[in-house]
Amino acid sequence: MSSNKSVTHVILTGGVGSRLWPLSRKSRPKQYLEIFEGKSLFEMTVERNSHLANKVMVVGNVDNFQLSGKVMDKTSTSYINIVEATPRNTAAAIAFAAFASEPNDILIITPSDHIIDLMENYNAAINEAITKADEGSIVTFGVIPTKPETGYGYIEAQGDNVVSFREKPNETTAKEFIAKGNFLWNSGMFCFKASVLLEELKQFQPDVYLKSKQVWEASKDGFLDLDLSMEIPSISIDYAVMERSKKIKVVPASFSWSDLGSFESVYDYLISKGHPVDNKGNMVIGCDKHTTFLGLENTIFVYTDSANLILQKESSQDVKDIYTELEKQNSELLK
Prior knowledge:
Radius of gyration: 20 Å
Shape: globular
Structural class: alpha/beta
Largest sheet: 9 strands, mixed
Helix content: 25-40%
């Protein structure tokens, strides 16, 4: 990191991890679960970027900011705290971070719930992005895919230019993307100068820009007003800016990356770290009691004090449907 640049690591902490129920609950979303060798995904995110930035900013909400504060205390990290009164999607969350910064500050935006390995490659990608951001680009990180994944969005790239952004594909389309060789997983990570992002947001989504600015200017100690926040249109940064701006560049990155958005990805990660499975690929998460699987393969048994889940690894994406059903019932099992 060049000493004459002010670089801020902005951590977005939204999301409840509905595909990881019953481990992930509203009171303790997946990014705060200390199930990764005694650390949480949030803590690993803070540590991973600590040497790449000279400031840290956490954009959280009224439900999780205290959980975030505990992680920041644990890691002895001083930070700028922004607490949303209600979720308004990523365009507003990122706008708040930019309004809280100096115009020339370079912001590295990362979610709080990703797993990243191959740190040498990660550091190189971040430094390349900082250079491009300093030149006035809005940079997105495209991860070189290792399989035709249907749980991620994709970026169609030509060198460092973005041709198109694509929604999560079905399996056939995902295989076509991989075969073409110029499609990258959309990591949801970005890098830009605060002023450049705000200029583009003002141009393409002036309502989000204006309402977010009003909310930020009325904030008290980083806490945002609920009534004013409700007026902000809920839209993602992808739709608001990334898919419309002419300043977008992509850094194709070869670090190992997963958003751990499903039990299948948690399973793969835990196996890579030596978590035990039986000879048929069955795994227990959250319980040390002896468990025997009979006549089953690639089954995951998820144990918590109040609810258990038994699933085929390949059915991981369907866990969200269970969460949605429990939500309709206003179930205590989500709290």
